[in-house]
Amino acid sequence: MGRAVKKTTIDLDLALFRRLKQYALDTDRTIREIVTEALQEKLARETQVTEGTQTPVKDIEDNPLAHRVVQEIERVMPTELAVRMLSQKCVKHDVFLETLTRRQLTKELIDDVLSSLHHMADDRRIATIRDNLMKLSAEGGA
Amino acid sequence: MVFIDSIEGMDMVFHTEPPQGIICVVVGGAGTLKSSFVYNMLQKYLDGHPKERAVYITFEESKEGHLKNIKSLGIPETPQIQMIDIASFKADLELWDQNIFKEEDYLNLILERAAAPLAVYEPHGEEGSDDAAKEFPPKYLVIDSMNALLALLGLSEPLVRRKLQDFFFRIRQKGVTAIMILETQVVDDRPEYFLVDGIIELGTEKMGNEIKRYLQVRKMRATRHEMKPFLIEASDGGIKIIGELF
Question: Does B55 touch chain A (CB under 8 A)?
């Protein structure tokens, strides 16, 4: 089943519209795709500016998986920073830390987290965190 | 002992070892080997103390850049010193969100790391041995540099002393010996000096056509030490104290 959509009409500056149309041709995408992507990026940025990509610590307490993931990151940094970093990484992967599921805890998300984390710990500790996160993810088995 | 008999010739400078848990600044201008000196001192000490650990937090230079520098002086990297590269971590996260770090994060991170247990590393702890299962909190903490940390905190001058006083109090409670690197040409009159237990100055002196590097202990509480400057030299095997400067 497709996602619900809402049709709307907006007036664009002619020069801007021409640039948009050319960009759509150059990138072989539709104007709808480009406008949707641009709006999503703009709104995500605004959210970060006003709230940061920051999930309060209390918001993850109801999600045992998110709580366990945070506990792993807490091995190398304080809780609040760990939650903020994970929130940011989750947003990048189109998921939310507070509602994170095992399926959403993908290898790509784990690798992204570890790519930042390797500045904060030695290889051995990173390997331990990686093993534990993989066990928590759907890709890590039952 | 970390100060008195780690780097060759340090016994000429120190007659007794500073007590564990002191806060000491290593101060000097650019190119005076501050970072390499501190790393070399800890690396040599830890080499003979396999169960002890140090945490080295770098706020300015990347871990890779720092290790490249120390290796160029013939100082070996040791897994007993855990490098925490806040500079790269911050740059990495701020690509996506400029506001992810809050001012209190930096001090909290240092305090948390100062007490966090560190694993026993190879080659000292063998897998499956009793040591491998144990974790020890660090005995030494390095902050490189205080200038960068203070810049990140964005404190105005009147607030610096109050904030540092509270921070140093909390560091002392952890029981680690903290070594803070401070880059400045003005060795006198900084707010940190009144709050710390020790000040080691590294500098350069023009002697004829040559520029010589020196080390001078300006202050070290509860320790007998020389006040004179001592000539230091960086050779293939790291840093050495050669003798008195004059």
Answer: no
